[in-house]
Design brief:
Helices cover 37% and strands 28% of the residues. The chain is built from 2 helices and 12 strands, in the order H-H-E-E-E-E-E-E-E-E-E-E-E-E. Helix 1 packs across helix 2.
Amino acid sequence: MYPRVDRQLVLFLAALLVVVLAAVVHRRTRAAGQEGLGASVVAVVVSPLQQGLTGASRRIGGAFGIFREIRTLYAENRRLRGEVDRLRQRVNTLEEQGRENVRLREMLRFREGLPRHGENALAATVIGVKPTNWYNAVTIDRGTADGVRERNMVLTPRGLVGQVRVATPHTATVLLITDLHSGVGGRIQRTGWTGVVKGTASDRLEMVYLPEEAAVRPGDRVVTSGQGSVFQVKGIMIGTVEQVRLDRNTSTRSAVVRPAVDVRRLEEVFVLTE
């Protein structure tokens, strides 16, 4: 059997042969100073090839142009992204400064309303919190060198925070009112009934030792009574009554109180140094 011949290969070789012959004829004709059929044949055969090469060259040049444009756009996009990030950070900084200014103005107004216009109110910043218990204690950046002493009352414009438990020269540990070992004399502002507000190691307080006949209801505000050896300033906001319970065994009432201060979000506080 004869081997199979690739038809496309044969056509290609034939076309190549025609081009070569045409080129030879064209060269000989030009060498003889003649322009005739050979030149025409070459022109006809070679012209499409030249046009194809020219078109391909233009397309390649266009592709490189598009590539350069893409690189330029990519660089511009990176620059704009960086600018947006810088502007976003600037906005965040300005917003934080605005919130801080609001807090400081609020603290200033509150301080002026304290006894003796807040002369004994020392501003401090919360610098630490125990990671195991948000409702136990926090650390502030003021200590004995600033006049802070153990059992000093700590508060914010929103209400009572707690008391200083341990003081070092430059820091102090504040026991929060939400701690299990915390207790403060409280008074129902609307009716004047008094009791003791205790911590529960959670985001709620409990007011106990209210007599059975005590007029108390959800929504009542609870403030410091001024009774006791620590929290002697009257009228400082402690929280709001959410629920009232009656213990028939002891004939007393108790109340669940939502603290006025969210101790998990403390930033600046006042320490009453006297």
